[in-house]
């Protein structure tokens, strides 16, 4: 039991820090605030984490493991438009769960070398997966586009997904933390990302995309 106690405290610190970073922004939260919210002494907190960057890096390890699981495209069959739709849903849900990384991205990367290097890898991985999804659709005759167009689509999809929450925050900062408002915002994000490939879709896939889009847009009205 004595060996488990530090681990429980460490996990609680990470859970609380993630919530505070998400709600108030990482630059606005200090280790003192975290210790006060935890009702522990600063010394107890420093027993588990050397400083705030150590906390941020530990949260990032969790985030990176989860996003790498999402970015693993199943082998054995080519992806269809519904797979792309599901992939985007899962991606945006994860981005929301760790939203402070995306909202405070430029500030974090400017002073954290580890995050800078790893986030570059994540972006490259996202683009690779987006490109593979588009190429799968093309192989199934569901998408008509050149290699150059697919490269541009994959990059645009990742750019929109990466900075969508920043756009929504600027658009309506007072409602940024309201559950329904952000659920709608994430839905809009999924639609905006997928709309990048809409003009290139063909045949039944184009019709299915139109149907899914209409159903989505009705929910947002």
UniProtKB/TrEMBL annotation:
InterPro entries: Homeodomain-like_sf, HTH-type_Tx_Regulator, HTH_TetR, TetR. Residues 30-49 bind DNA. It comes from Duganella fentianensis. GO terms for molecular function: DNA binding. The keyword Metal-binding does not apply. It holds the Pfam family TetR_N. Keywords: DNA-binding. The keyword DNA-binding applies. Signal peptide: none annotated. Residues 7-67 form the HTH tetR-type domain. This is TetR family transcriptional regulator.
